[in-house]
Specification:
Oligomer: single chain
Strand content: 15-25%
Structural class: mainly beta
Order of helices and strands: HEEEEEEEEEEEH
Strand order of the largest sheet: 1-2-6-11-4
Largest sheet: 5 strands, mixed
Helix content: under 10%
Number of strands: 11
Number of domains: 1
């Protein structure tokens, strides 16, 4: 759901430096499961472009161990579009969904970004999230660096988690929407957040004194790990 843009002048927060660090240290995401959210679409495999036939495997190649399956140990490689060379995603490139984790009491929010275009784009750093009228103060990021730059191809997804409040903490809210903007290391201009309404599952949220957000991640289970240990 899109709404009118608002001026946002201070959301950069060192995006270029963090993006450079992520790009230089990226490695593939681990797999994971999550009973409270829809599983991400499988990464696409890039097609071969050469005309030379692949070499036949060596006769000494070790056969797979009995009982081992792909699902037993997911690949650690990033998706085929996960190189980080794609341009930064903007609000015109992604659709944003919101959900809770199973058995959660409304303290944590899962944000899912789905690429709705026919080209890959990159979600750098973390989403700039605001609630209410305080559009100049996005949520602070958790110490949750991603294992790979979050480049998503068409229909692929990336995830971020929000810690809204802790148990027993005083909250404010009843917010039915939130503001979101995206980091773009190649741009020095002001951010332009959009208002996104919460899904029917979430409807509204309450926010505590120190909410925070994870970095974008291709692996939903990594987001869960950081969200639920945040204090």
């Amino acid at each position: 759901m899109r709404a009118a843009r608002k001026s946002w002048k201070t959301y950069a927060l060192g995006a270029a430096a963090v993006a450079a660090l992520l790009s230089s240290t990226a490695c593939g995401p681990d797999g994971g499961t999550d009973d409270g959210a829809v599983s991400p679409a499988p990464s696409r495999t890039a097609s071969a472009t050469g005309t030379t036939a692949p070499a036949a495997p060596s006769p000494s190649t070790e056969a797979p161990r009995p009982g081992a399956t792909d699902s037993a140990r997911p690949s650690a490689r990033p998706s085929a579009t996960g190189s980080g060379k794609a341009p930064a995603c903007g609000d015109q490139d992604v659709s944003i969904g919101t959900s809770y984790w199973a058995h959660d009491s409304g303290q944590h929010l899962l944000i899912t970004a789905t690429n709705i275009t026919d080209k890959p784009c990159t979600l750098y750093n973390y989403p700039f999230i605001t609630f209410g009228q305080d559009t100049d103060s996005p949520l602070t990021p958790m110490e949750s660096p991603a294992k790979a730059v979050a480049t998503i191809g068409p229909k692929e997804k990336a995830y971020a988690g929000v810690k809204l409040f802790l148990g027993g903490e005083k909250t404010s809210g009843g917010y039915t929407s939130f503001g979101i903007a995206y980091a773009d290391p190649s741009s020095s201009g002001d951010g332009s957040p959009i208002d996104v309404e919460f899904s029917d599952e979430v409807q509204f949220v309450n926010v505590g004194q120190n909410p925070s957000v994870t970095f974008w991640n291709l692996d939903r289970s990594e987001v869960e790990k950081f969200v639920f240990k945040a204090r």
